[in-house]
């Protein structure tokens, strides 16, 4: 599940899964982790339902729980779906199963909807599982879990690959920010930024430092969203720690380089911890421009602002950066310029 970037990443695969099964998707609540609380944010608060409906059939969670669930999914028929039975983490005496409500945010999520499960169903024996591209997979789903017997498929975790694969990235174009978030982004740009402007996403909180420790340059395995800049299977190069957690000098140098390359008049910075505003502004003095951040951080508005930038610099590994990159690649007639810290354009060596 993870934070917002991970949730959106998997949501793309869930959309593709629902469309392939020809099932109506109940638009999920997004989960905000604000320790010690877990907040549920309705899909329609963040994104336009009408835009998603252009891709596949959908219904809001509110409409489902209030009008549809009581009729088609009575309490005695509510079963959880998962790949295969597993042991419970907290209750060692419990029988193996999906344990769909075990822990946070899973328990609070289903409790918020008023759902208690009476049993489990497993789909691990279906060829490809939730990957319906495999031969016979769609037919097997229909045979084993017909819509007549199972009108609702409720999964204990997203039926989609994580990290997402390139084949679903273009679905991002159907994820349009709500009018409220769009207007907030436009207002901030009008009041604080001059075009052309560079938008920057920095990941540098303690939890991210720990993520980057998992990088193995020799094995070169994909990590979170790293395939967005290195291609699937990293066929375009090797993932380095510089790409995941660049030092302050590398960050400043690359921002200055991109500012000069487009003649930027301002810089916007979003971060989970340190925005580096003082360091960036010191480096930008020769250009007589300034870097800005939101006084009260709102990650959704930050994402919308970065999506509208003239040039974006993100973190190669971050799924949060990947939201911006996908939006810039697939929303509009042509992709808009994006770059990543630590990822440098390949230089062509021509021998005469």
UniProtKB/TrEMBL annotation:
Subcellular location: Endoplasmic reticulum
EC identifiers of the protein: 2.4.1.221
Catalytic activity: L-threonyl-[protein] + GDP-beta-L-fucose = 3-O-(alpha-L-fucosyl)-L-threonyl-[protein] + GDP + H(+); L-seryl-[protein] + GDP-beta-L-fucose = 3-O-(alpha-L-fucosyl)-L-seryl-[protein] + GDP + H(+)
Main localisation: endoplasmic reticulum
Gene3D superfamilies noted in UniProt: 3.40.50.11340, 3.40.50.11350
GO biological process, one term: Notch signaling pathway
Transmembrane domains' residue ranges: none
Keyword set includes Glycoprotein: yes
Pfam families: O-FucT
MF terms in GO: peptide-O-fucosyltransferase activity
GO CC terms: endoplasmic reticulum
Organism domain of life: Eukaryota
Metabolic or biological pathway, per its Swiss-Prot or TrEMBL entry: Protein modification; protein glycosylation
Entry keywords, A to Z: Carbohydrate metabolism, Disulfide bond, Endoplasmic reticulum, Fucose metabolism, Glycoprotein, Glycosyltransferase, Notch signaling pathway, Transferase
Protein family (similarity comment): Belongs to the glycosyltransferase 65 family.
Designated name of the protein: GDP-fucose protein O-fucosyltransferase 1
């Amino acid at each position: 599940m993870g934070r917002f970037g991970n949730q959106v990443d998997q949501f793309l695969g869930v959309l593709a899964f629902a469309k392939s099964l020809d099932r109506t998707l109940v638009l999920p609540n997004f989960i905000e982790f604000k320790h010690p609380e877990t907040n549920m944010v309705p899909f329609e608060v963040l994104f336009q339902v009408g835009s998603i409906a252009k891709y596949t059939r959908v219904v809001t969670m509110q409409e489902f729980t209030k009008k549809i669930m009581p009729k088609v999914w009575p309490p005695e028929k509510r079963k959880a779906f998962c790949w295969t039975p597993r042991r419970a983490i907290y209750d060692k005496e419990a029988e193996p199963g999906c344990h769909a409500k075990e822990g946070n945010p899973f328990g609070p999520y289903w409790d918020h909807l008023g759902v208690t499960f009476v049993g489990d169903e497993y789909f691990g024996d279906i060829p490809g599982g939730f990957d319906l591209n495999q031969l016979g997979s769609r037919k097997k789903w229909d045979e084993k879990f017909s819509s007549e017997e199972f009108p609702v498929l409720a999964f204990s975790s997203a039926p989609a690959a994580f990290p997402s694969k390139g084949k679903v990235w273009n679905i991002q174009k159907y994820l349009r920010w709500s009018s409220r978030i769009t207007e907030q982004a436009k207002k901030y740009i009008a009041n604080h930024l001059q075009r052309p402007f560079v938008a920057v996403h920095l990941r540098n909180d303690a939890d991210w430092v720990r993520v980057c420790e998992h990088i193995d340059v020799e094995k070169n395995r994909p990590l979170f969203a790293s395939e967005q800049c290195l291609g699937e299977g990293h066929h375009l190069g090797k993932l380095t720690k510089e790409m995941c957690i660049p030092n302050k000098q590398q960050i400043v140098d690359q921002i200055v380089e991109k500012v000069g390359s487009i003649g930027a008049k301002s810089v916007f910075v979003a971060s989970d911890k340190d925005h580096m505003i003082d360091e960036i502004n010191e480096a930008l003095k020769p250009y007589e421009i300034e870097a800005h951040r939101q006084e009260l951080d709102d990650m959704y508005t930050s994402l919308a602002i970065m999506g509208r930038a003239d040039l974006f610099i993100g973190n190669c590994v971050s799924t949060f950066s990947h939201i911006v990159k996908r939006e810039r690649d697939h929303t509009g007639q042509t992709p808009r310029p994006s770059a990543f810290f630590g990822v440098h354009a390949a230089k062509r060596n021509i021998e005469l």
